[in-house]
Structures are given as structure tokens and as C-alpha cells.
Amino acid sequence: xxxxxxxxxxxxxxxxxxxxxxxxxxxxxxxxxxxxxxxxxxxxxxxxxxxxxxxxxxxxxxxxxxxxxxxxxxxxxxxxxxxxxxxxxxxxxxxxxxxxxxxxxxxxxxxxxxxxxxxxxxxxxxxxxxxxxxxxxxxxxxxxxxxxxxxxxxxxxxxxxxxxxxxxxxxxxxxxxxxxxxxxxxxxxxxxxxxxxxxxxxxxxxxxxxxxxxxxxxxxxxxxxxxxxxxxxxxxxxxxxxxxxxxxxxxxxxxxxxxxxxxxxxxxxxxxxxxxxxxxxxxxxxxxxxxxxxxxxxxxxxxxxxxxxxxxxxxxxxxxxxxxxxxxxxxxxxxx
Length: 336
Ligand code: KG4
Ligand code: ZN
Fold this sequence. Notes:
Layout: E1 2-7, E2 12-19, E3 23-31, H1 33-37, H2 44-65, E4 75-81, H3 85-102, E5 106-110, H4 111-117, E6 129-134, E7 139-146, E8 149-156, H5 161-171, H6 179-186, E9 206-208, H7 211-223, H8 230-259, E10 263-267, H9 274-287, H10 304-315
The structure holds 5'-O-[(R)-(carboxyoxy)(hydroxy)phosphoryl]adenosine (KG4) and zinc ion.
Zinc ion is lined by residues 111, 115, 135, 268-269, 301.
């Protein structure tokens, strides 16, 4: 079965082809980072317009590269939410139009389910699993007994983990998105020079909070002689990353213990973080839990994860009608 995936929930326009016989055949991503860079974050209206300009040419390009027409496809999967509604609507309307024109079955995919199932593109998933979803908009711990069944056990009370990286980067004058430069600079950081909070560790709930970290980083930075030296920046990056990773892993493994799972997974853009991947592997090994990190290209937003999730839905017989709507918020829900 050949499924075309479309992802336009934020600032990347992505189109992919998943073939159930051979795997991901294409995963094309047109980044809008340059467009939003001057604004220090994504400008929703600019994102929608850029998706509108880019999406159909990328679909055409993919079909040409694969020597296919729409009629050769078996289904279409499109991110329905959560995300920027204007941006989502561009993908959704395009997906509906293509599905109608070529008489193809259409399924709307929850963006977070896409991120979670990106793990299956790297290796067969082992269940029951505990998944740490960490992206620009989400920090959630999700229990997953099988594909299509999800139970949120907890999440952030304020900022998402990706936001914590992005806000710290902004404070340090680093480019957006902030995760990749912090990941890189932290490697040259000095352990122990700063000490940032890891709140709510004793809270019986599975909850995170990152807003205090942002304030602690700002206060520490303000106390230093200005402008900051390169070593100052690396040291702040090091401790910020340690604080975020400690907070995340403490909850992930607490939840894993609670539900007696066999495996743990990382999902979302922050899953690309080198330190998070390394520490998750160490902690999982100590507890005898299975863990394989998702390939980095499938961590940040991409349509391969949407095409694959689409195949799971279509294969299980699920279809959406042309009344499929976009949604800005909401956790991933069970559909099986
Ligand atoms: O999943 P994603 O591409 O988009 C959303 O659905 O939000 O995640 C984007 C987030 C950004 O906050 C970005 O800073 C973060 O993922 N990110 C990273 C890394 N690469 C991307 N955070 C830490 N380390 C990285 N290497
Ligand atoms: Zn995402």
C-alpha cells in the first residue's frame, strides 16, 4: 500500500511517501526557518502563506521523482492537529482536494501520534511502552499498550521542553530553534558551574515545569559580566540541558515503573537531543528496558511519520470524510 503523507502543522512543509512493502520512499521537507528567523519564533500567518506557496509543488516533485501519479496511490494521510490552525488548514484542504480528485481514502492524523509512530520507522516497536513526547509544543508522558492506544499519564504544567530550549537560546542570543545550538554548545560546557532548578521531583503526579528554569537562567546570565564569553554560553547551555534532561527522565522512568512496561521511547523534536538520547539509553539499560532512539530526521516535524501513521489507520480500516476538521490543541487519543 502506498500512502502519501502531508504535514503542515507548524513551520515545515513536508510531503512523504510510505510504501508498506519497502518503507519510506521519500520524505521531503521545506523548512521555513529563514523566513521566521528575524522574528525569534514562528509567525503563524507567514507560515500558512509559505505552506500555500510550497505544498503543491512539493507534492508534484515527489510524484515526479517516484514516477507516479495520484492514481497510483492507495491513500492519503494529513496532519489534522494540533498545531497552527491556519497552517493545518492548508495541508488539510490540499489533502481533501487531492483525495477527492483521485478518489483516494483520506485519514486525518494527530501530529503527536505521528511523532510517536516515527519510532516504528527505525525499528519494530516493543509493547507495552512508555513514551516521552517532547517537542516545541508538547511535553507528555504517554502509556502505549499497542499502536492506536494511548493514555496520557502526565505532562508539563507550563512550558514544553522544546520551548525551554528555545527560550534559553533566545536569552543567550542563539538562533531559533534553540535546541540544536544548545545541544552543540553544551558539549563544551563545564559541569557544576551553574545550578538550575529541577522542580516538582517529589510531586506524586507525573508533571513537569520549565518556567522556573527560564527565570533561573535569566538571573544567572544577568549576574555575569556582559557581553558573555563563549565559555559562559557553553556553561549555561550545559546546565540548562542537564536540568531539562534530568526533569524529563525522572518522570519517564517513574511512569515506566508504575505501568511495568517493557520499553521506553522518545518522540518529537527534542528527541533529537544528543544528551537526552544518551542518558535515556543509560537509564533504560540499568532497568532492563528496551530502548532504541528514533532516527534524527524522524524526530523533528516530517511527513514520513504522518504517512506511516496513515498506513496504520488505513490498514485497520479507518477512513475520514471530507468534513474532517483541524484542531489547535489536544492530546493524542485512542482510535483502535
Ligand atoms: O517536533 P518539532 O519539530 O515541532 C513541534 O511539533 O513542536 O519540535 C521542535 C522543537 C523545537 O523546540 C526545537 O528547539 C527542538 O524541537 N529541538 C531540539 C533539538 N532539535 C530540535 N531540542 C533539543 N536538542 C535538539 N537537538
Ligand atoms: Zn512536532
